[in-house]
Amino acid sequence: MLLSKKKARLVSKARETAYTGFVVLDRRLPAAEACKALLRKAFPEHWSFLLGEIALYSLVVLVLTGSYLTLFFNPSMSESVYHGVYVPLQGLRVTDAYSSTLDISFDIRGGLLIRQMHHWAALVFVAAIGVHMLRIFFTGAFRRPREANWMIGVTLFMLALLEGFCGYSLPDDLLSGTGLRTANTILMSIPVVGTYLTFFVWGGAFPGHALIPRLYIVHVLFVPGVLIALVAAHLMLVVYLKHTQWGAQGKTNRNSVGLPMVPQFTAKSTGLSLMVFGVTSALGAVAQINPIWNYGPYQADQVATDAQPDWYVGFLEGALRIMPPWENNVVGHTIMWNVFIPAVLMPAVLFLVLYLYPLFEKWVTGDLMEHHLCDRPRDRPTRTALAVAAIVFYAVTLLAGGNDVIAYSFRVSVNALTWIFRISVILGPIVAFLATKRICLAMQMHDRQLLEEGEETGRVSQNVYGGISESHRPIPVEHRYRLLVRDIPKPLAHPGKQAPRRHRMRAALSAWYYRDRVDMPTTAEQRLQITGKTAAPVAAPKE
């Protein structure tokens, strides 16, 4: 009885303290208003919306493990004789960066686990951002009012690539040194200013003594700071603009339906965070990655045969390997097109297209309304086909980055394999685009057939004349709603031959985007209801 009274007094005192603290905070900051809006936030239930959270929790793992590693890593290129516990390397002259990485792996308690967790989390982080961006692109979630958030996401992806490359270059082993030699060549390929840039970045001739300390500062200070700031801005915009949602009964372009933050979403998100921590811990414990003791320290006159970077920059390696050896000498300056085009111009064009695509599609469609319903990829065949073509281009260049390993493993000629990749990098995306577009239109035709005939029951009957037919039943109301409630713009009318060229080009692009479509069988009343479901909200969508 005494314990119960004491416990009740402690609970009451804790509640009173919490209430007083909240009142003090609310008088100085809009805590009550912010908490009310956040707790009422509706989160979508579909699994595809969890991809961004995987990236977020991978970043948390990276920050925690990276903070631990900074306590023991020495970012110096000064050389000394190695006398550590790894016997095969004893007596070799190595840099302090390489030696400290070996010490982390073999001498520091839990160092190898944390180091491998850090590397695996980096791979998961970049992969989650990439797949998350694909989900946004396929479903049209980059359209108004989310263009700015899309651009923030593209910037996050670009910074993640830079952060990953800097981190994988820090140990100063033979593999990372080969990557830095490649980066040095890429910078030198920039016409006119290339040599000045390399001397500025490396602090002199390659390999120099300044790059590893500079990469360390970039890796642990500059890029993480910008990443965390952009992630915070991205999340605030997500809360302010609301999530997009898949079309279903009760979900329109004017509302936001989903799980409340407390307790459903909080419980689900907490479970996902624990899964991310668990998976990265398991990978760090049982899956070896980046064994620098096998590669050895970097020597400028040595290179590994099968030296490939991590997958997220592997496509640049492949583009370099399949590019023809084109060079020109202009006024005493050698322009290395074989390096500049695949490693500088191609990534620049790629990210420029990613940044500007929402504006380009808005210009092509002439669409100025807000969109909060996700597109089904099959309903936008041209956009979907463009994305699949880009994925195939990336896959071919990634495979080309390991052409020597593939040639050795399958006993084929490296030259023959290079020509296969050169042809595939051009024809592959074209074939993928055409095939994907036809598949999307075929799926639309299947949807139309379902609406007209219903779904098959599996029962076959024979009439008195011997004819065989199968029976159908109407599709469920939820499925019918998903098929009918879609917003596909119609091609812009041609402005005529006397119109300005940009207007004619816009009409031609609009026709190329949206002329191939399969219209669904609807009544006048259904078309009116669909228009109401997809109409733009008068104000911000209410939850």
Describe the model.
The model has no long low-confidence stretch (mean pLDDT 89). A hairpin with a 2-residue loop joins strand 5 and strand 6. This protein has three domains: 40 residues; 259 residues, Cytochrome Bc1 Complex, Chain C; 156 residues, no CATH class. The chain has 19 helices and eight strands. Helices cover 64% and strands 6% of the residues. The chain has a two-stranded antiparallel sheet. Strands 2-3 form a two-stranded antiparallel ribbon. It catalyses: a quinol + 2 Fe(III)-[cytochrome c](out) = a quinone + 2 Fe(II)-[cytochrome c](out) + 2 H(+)(out). Its cofactor is heme. It is an enzyme of class 7 (translocase). Its EC number is 7.1.1.8.
The total number of structural domains is 3
Per CATH, the architecture of the largest domain is: Up-down Bundle
Fourth CATH level, the homologous superfamily of the largest domain: Cytochrome Bc1 Complex, Chain C
Average pLDDT score: 89
Distance between the termini: 46 Å
Shape category: globular
EC number: 7.1.1.8
InterPro entries: Cyt_b/b6_C_sf, Cyt_b/b6_N, Cytb/b6-like_sf, Di-haem_cyt_TM
Protein name: Cytochrome bc1 complex cytochrome b subunit
Transmembrane segments: 49-73, 120-138, 150-170, 182-203, 215-241, 335-357, 386-410, 416-435
